[in-house]
Specification:
about 500 residues; single chain; Outer membrane efflux proteins (OEP); four-stranded antiparallel sheet
Length: about 500
């Protein structure tokens, strides 16, 4: 039977048909060696890496962010849409059966069209039967469509994984910013206490005749500046709270419940010191972009297969009769079956245009993948450089802070003893405040850089979890199971 069908296909094809154009050259995907990934493999990070900061409030904020995020909800909706498309594509590989029945009451014309005795009378025309059809995927078009839909489904799942990483990272970064603003508010508060202390000393010196009202007014003028800095820092902390609430999908009702961070800002997160060789296998956005290339290539193969004949098998059996009482009689039975072949001969260039479009989509997917790879390498390189620089800055800044703290203490002691002027105290205080603020900025920057670098190498995402998606897909829908091996396949 199959040989007869194949012979018929050849004979039909020789009569002329629409032919695909030659495959265009496509840009290559970037290999790891080309982008400098030569370092040791980065070890997978345990899920819940934020627990290293030892702050229950941060843990709860991230939990809420992952639970109520509109971004994740949109990603899950895209997964459901891709899964439905995969189900639809998979169904095309299987036979389909239909049961149809109809009954039409009509009056026949008295002449010409309907012979006697029906002519000029009213009667029921009834039909009932079953039909079976199977589109045989000779050229692999439907199989390519299934592969494309499955790749898009996995890509959508990876996009959700990437969104989870980004949400956890964004909440942590905003929490670090909240820590920074509270620390700056502490510095402003400490400066206000110090300046009030200097005012008290200056008043005693004025009473003792060691200073004038000028020095006193200068000292009093510094106190409001510290209060302004404190107000500004607390306002910035409120803005960080607002951002946190938005990131976890909440509104103003949770502002008051977000308290001051108490986390270990120096927490050592497991981050690499060089570009890891397995970077491209650890980032969900890179893996998603790679699956998009696979999906585009499958779409190109499906578009190419559309140039070849469609072959299907059809079978039907049922009853048809004039009059409902005659429908189930043996004489009303009918049946039939056979192959159906459809070969495109002329379509005005539609198939060629679709094929060129599929090749353009493949080129775009490859370019998008390469762009994602380059950005992944740049982001990781930038954070490694930044982390290394901040670590050195922190050592130098600690020495600067220790020196300015001692200088301020000595200036205050000398001023109290009448051995120095108020100007020397003011200069020392300005330097120590700047050093304290710089230290807070560096500490917060180090924590933020660790988080960003951890996300740049894939965070707590485990690339091996992709294999586990198959089990999830089977639980969601059997349509994503492997293509049936008994499906006939031929390739041009």
């Amino acid at each position: 039977m199959r040989m007869q069908i194949a012979s018929l296909l050849v004979s039909v094809a020789m009569t002329g048909c629409v032919l695909p154009s030659k495959d265009a050259a496509h840009p290559p995907t970037l290999a790891p060696a080309r982008v400098g990934l030569t370092g040791a493999e980065s070890a997978p990070v345990a899920d819940g890496w934020w627990n290293s900061f030892q702050d229950p409030q941060l843990d709860e904020l991230i939990r809420l962010g992952l639970k109520d995020s509109p971004t994740l909800a949109q990603g899950q909706a895209r997964v459901a849409e891709a899964l439905a498309q995969a189900q639809s594509a998979q169904a095309g590989l299987l036979p389909n059966a239909n049961l149809d029945a109809s009954a039409l009451y009509q009056r026949a014309p008295a002449e010409y069209l309907i012979p006697p005795p029906l002519a000029g009378h009213s009667f029921w025309m009834a039909q009932a039967g079953a039909s079976l059809g199977w589109d045989i995927d000779f050229w692999g078009r439907q199989a390519a469509a299934v592969h494309r839909a499955q790749a898009l489904t996995q890509s959508a799942r990876l996009d959700v994984d990437n969104a989870r990483l980004m949400i956890a990272g964004a909440v942590t970064q905003a929490y670090i910013e909240l820590y920074r603003e509270w620390a700056l508010a502490d510095i402003a508060e400490r400066a206000a206490v110090q300046r009030q202390h200097i005012i008290d000393i200056t008043r005693r010196r004025v009473t003792a005749g060691l200073d004038t009202r000028l020095e006193l007014r200068e000292a009093e003028g510094q106190l409001p500046q510290a209060r302004v800095a404190r107000v500004q820092a607390r306002a910035a902390a409120d803005l960080a709270v607002h951002q946190l609430a938005t990131l976890i999908g909440q509104g103003a009702q949770v502002y008051a419940s977000i308290k001051r961070p108490v986390f270990a800002v120096e927490a050592a997160l497991p981050v690499p010191g060089a570009l890891p060789i397995n970077l491209l296998a650890r980032r969900p956005d890179v893996l998603s972009a790679r699956l998009a290339v696979d999906a585009a290539d499958a779409g190109r193969l499906a578009a190419r297969a559309a140039f070849y004949p469609d072959v299907s098998l059809r079978a039907l059996a049922g009853f048809g009769a004039f009059g409902l009482s005659n429908l189930l009689q043996g004489s009303a039975r009918g049946y039939g079956g056979g192959p159906l072949i459809s070969l495109p001969l002329f379509d005005g260039g539609r198939l060629r245009a679709q094929y060129r479009g599929s090749e353009a989509q493949l080129d775009a997917a490859i370019d998008a993948y390469n762009d994602t790879v380059l950005h992944a390498v740049q982001q990781t390189s930038d954070q490694i450089t930044r982390l290394d620089a901040l670590a050195r800055e922190r050592l130098d800044q600690q020495q600067t802070l220790d020196a300015t703290e001692d200088a301020y203490r000595l200036a205050e002691e000398r001023y109290t003893a009448g051995l120095a002027s108020y100007l020397s105290v003011l200069n020392a205080e300005t330097q120590v405040l700047a050093a304290r603020q710089s230290m807070v900025d560096i500490q917060a920057g180090l924590a933020a850089a660790r988080v960003t670098l951890l996300l740049a190498v894939g965070g707590s995402f485990d690339a091996h979890a992709i294999d586990a998606h198959a089990a999830v897909q089977q639980a969601d829908a059997r349509a994503l199971a492997a293509i049936p091996t008994n499906s006939p396949r031929m390739h041009p």
